[in-house]
């Protein structure tokens, strides 16, 4: 089977960013014998810079997997230039795809709808099934975060969204909330499949030496209790409250935030204004190293804004932390809270509450070795049931195979 998989923000594990699509494509090529074209941007959004030739050369070749690095308009801040960046990637994908031999199935992934719309048009022209992967509910999330108020743009994006839901032969969602949201739009639930994020089991093994080394890299003493946040630093992540929690931490406790985004400079200034020596903001690191940094911590933080749109979120760090056996301190109510509490892998600290977050970290610090071991076991059990990338990739592939067989 020949598969096209397009995501504007996809990267391989040696680059910081979203590795889901690379891991799926690699699994399909290696385990299912598929021929996969993965379409990605040469401009890496989280760090606002181009992929280097050295980074490309460091990616091991995989038989059956072809990486297509597309140009997109560079930008430094989230203003109109980011919209140009999105639109340019969608246009380049469409134009290059026009002149390539048709696949058997085409998958285009949000968050932005321009790429998905280009994917639908290409699939229609080439007469192949179109799969719409919904990573984020556009424009609903933009509206509820206050990032989109122009009624004309809202009307256009809403039309695009509904059109894609109707025209897609298959819709892949990452959370139960997304599935309910789309079904409530009148879309047949039988064509909506939940394939959440996950981790590649066996891709990483812990060692005490590695833990010590990465503690030193972060500048954290061995006897310090460390809570880590890994990921985007944007308005949606509400990291101001994580930084402010440093004012209320018990002595001997630190927070490290690893990543980048439009709020990073603001967070650095806030830390300096408050004089917080127990809060550290580090640059983003490749996914191939993020497990080492996270394993060197004592617990993981999941933070999102106190907004209805995030009640249905299921961020990738949920799977990273549970895979590594780290207790989770979450500020996110809704689906994340339900998973954390149901599987007994952490606690809910309250939304946008610095004192509550600090108190929750202090509570985790008091956990016995037996309780921490049970949390680690619970986390691995959850990953085995719902977050094993190999199982998820196979389920996804079977859906694609069914689509292609039906088309033929």
UniProtKB/TrEMBL annotation:
It comes from the Bacteria. Residues 211-375 form the Glycosyl transferase family domain. InterPro entries: Glyco_trans_1, Glyco_trans_4-like_N. Residues 21-198 form the Glycosyltransferase subfamily 4-like N-terminal domain. Pfam families: Glyco_trans_4_4 (PF13579), Glycos_transf_1 (PF00534). PANTHER family: GLYCOSYLTRANSFERASE, GLYCOSYLTRANSFERASE (GROUP I). This is Glycosyltransferase involved in cell wall biosynthesis. It comes from Croceifilum oryzae. The lineage of its organism: Bacteria, Bacillati, Bacillota, Bacilli, Bacillales.
């Amino acid at each position: 089977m020949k598969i096209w998989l397009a995501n504007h923000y996809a990267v391989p594990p040696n680059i910081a960013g979203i590795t889901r699509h690379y891991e799926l494509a690699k699994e399909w090529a290696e385990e299912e014998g598929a021929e996969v074209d993965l379409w990605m941007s040469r401009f890496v959004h989280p760090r606002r810079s181009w992929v280097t030739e050295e980074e490309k050369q460091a990616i091991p070749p995989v038989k059956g997997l072809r990486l297509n690095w597309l140009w997109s308009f560079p930008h430094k801040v989230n203003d109109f230039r980011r919209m140009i960046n999105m639109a340019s990637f969608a246009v380049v994908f469409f134009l290059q795809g026009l002149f390539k031999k048709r696949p058997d199935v085409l998958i285009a992934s949000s968050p932005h709808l321009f790429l998905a719309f280009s994917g639908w048009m290409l699939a229609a022209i080439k007469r192949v099934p179109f799969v719409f992967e919904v990573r984020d509910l556009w424009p609903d999330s933009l509206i509820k975060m206050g990032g989109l108020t122009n009624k004309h743009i809202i009307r256009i994006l809403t039309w695009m969204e509904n059109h894609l839901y109707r025209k897609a032969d298959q819709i892949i969602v990452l959370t139960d909330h997304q599935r309910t949201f789309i079904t409530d739009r009148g879309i047949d639930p039988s064509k909506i499949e939940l394939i959440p994020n996950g981790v590649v089991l066996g891709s990483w093994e812990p060692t005490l030496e590695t833990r010590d080394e990465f503690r030193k890299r972060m500048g954290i003493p061995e006897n310090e209790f460390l809570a880590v946040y890994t990921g985007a630093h944007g308005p949606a992540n509400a990291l101001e409250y994580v930084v402010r929690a440093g004012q209320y931490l018990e002595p001997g406790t630190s927070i490290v935030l690893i990543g980048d985004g439009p709020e990073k400079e603001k967070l650095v200034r806030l830390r300096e204004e408050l004089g917080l020596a127990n809060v550290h903001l580090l640059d983003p690191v490749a996914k191939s190293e993020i497990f080492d940094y996270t394993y060197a911590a004592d617990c993981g933080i999941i933070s999102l804004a106190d907004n209805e749109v995030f009640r249905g979120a299921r961020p990738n760090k949920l799977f990273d932390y549970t895979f590594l056996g780290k207790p989770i301190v979450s500020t996110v109510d809704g689906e994340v809270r339900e998973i954390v509490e149901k599987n007994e892998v952490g606690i809910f600290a309250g939304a946008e509450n610095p004192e509550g977050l600090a108190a929750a970290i202090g509570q985790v610090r008091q956990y016995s070795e037996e309780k921490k071991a049970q949390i680690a076991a619970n986390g691995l059990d959850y990953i085995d049931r719902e977050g094993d990338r190999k199982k998820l990739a196979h389920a996804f592939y079977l859906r694609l195979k069914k689509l292609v067989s039906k088309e033929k």
